[in-house]
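Schema walkthrough. Field components (list of strings):
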Amino acid sequence: MSMVEPVEDTHGFPFTEHAQKFEVIPTDAADPSSATFVVHDEDHTLGNSLRYMVMKNPAVTFCGYSIPHPSEFKIHMRIQTDGSMTAAQALDKGLDDLIALSEHVLQTFQAKVAATEDYEIRDGAHI
Amino acid sequence: MHDEAALQEMRTRVVLHADRVAHPSSMEFPGNFPGEDLSWNLEEFKKNFRIVVGFIGKDDMEFDMIGVDAAIANAFRRILIGEVPTMAIEKVFVLNNTSIMHDEILAQRLGLIPIKADPRLFTFRRGANDDPTDLNTLVFKLRVQCTKNPDALPSAVHPADKYINSNVLSSHLQWDPQGEQVERFANDPCRPVIDDILITKMRPGQEIDVELHCQKGIGKEHAKWSPVATASYRLLPDIQILKPITGESAKRFQKCFPPGVVAVKPNAAGQLEATIANPRKDTVSREVLRHAEFEDKVRLTRVRDHFIFSIESTGILPPQELFGEAAKILINKCNVVKAALHASGALVAPQEI
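Field assembly_structure (string):
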């Protein structure tokens, strides 16, 4: 899989710069099928939606996230798999799936908004 | 054990009882139901996913998002409230303030004024070492002096008649374009969204002279940057009548719901009977569950994957654009984490301690 370049900061969270975004806390160096990933500067927004996508993967036996302390702006995401893929691969697949889902939601929404004859336009809004 | 219909209800509906909400969380995960493949399938998702726009107004819209999990719908809602950036007044340089309002209260009130400027045309100012430029800062001036109205009638009692500028309004803010901002915003000058927001009141002899610097920010840091008044969703109510409700009882049944939810019409036997006309209007107050006569006759549920989204913009961006921005932000979040995951090397080999 090719490396994904970080996207321009126009939509990014403004406090991430110079800070570490990502850490791995391995459970067992010899067993990559379970690990805890630390994602900095994220909260329930990404945590819960990503947990849902990762749990949709049949190779994943457990996935959960927590915010270990309310003053520390980070989430811990725990992933355990049945061994057919590593925990990191399961996380990567979850991210891919969430991107694909969001892109489809965005396209559908924009198409529906463009179909101005299908809904009511109030107070002379410009669509 | 559950029969097929009960299981189906459990999977697709959130059931509301008088004292509790039954099975609120989704069960659609691989391995939960034998013989069913519930793993993520984009094609299957595309088949089931629907968006139905209800209406779009200048500042508000409503649409239905059908076929997603609450985790996803909630991510969009949270991003709308806390992570879609806007421009808001962040620095207030007080040159003179002789009004009765303290500088810090004045600054706080000024910050909350929605500023009509497309945030996508600005960049974030990153800390104090990042110099303000015409790309990351908007400047407004507020210079107001209150004086006696020389033309006031002797009988005038209202301050608005007796004095000039006794009310300091958001329309008193004057945009001071910097650098190339005049050309960039020639078609859409930067201004407060609403002109008659009362900032403070003054009396003759009092004066305010402040310079205001707007910066780009997000609602998570301060609510003044939130682009929405509210962004919320609710699940579509689904009211099931289990046994016919007829006669006077039907009229009492109708009164348990907001107008328009229940229709009472003569049935085939010529008897008045209650039917569900428009469950969407229901607020799910659960009033009906307080009456013994309707026990075992009605079941209040909500459709688990049918979200009625409502977005009320503050007027800075139209609501339909806000949702598009929210979706892009979620995609961007994933891309940033993905890049960090790849850079960490965790994907290549088992990690070493």
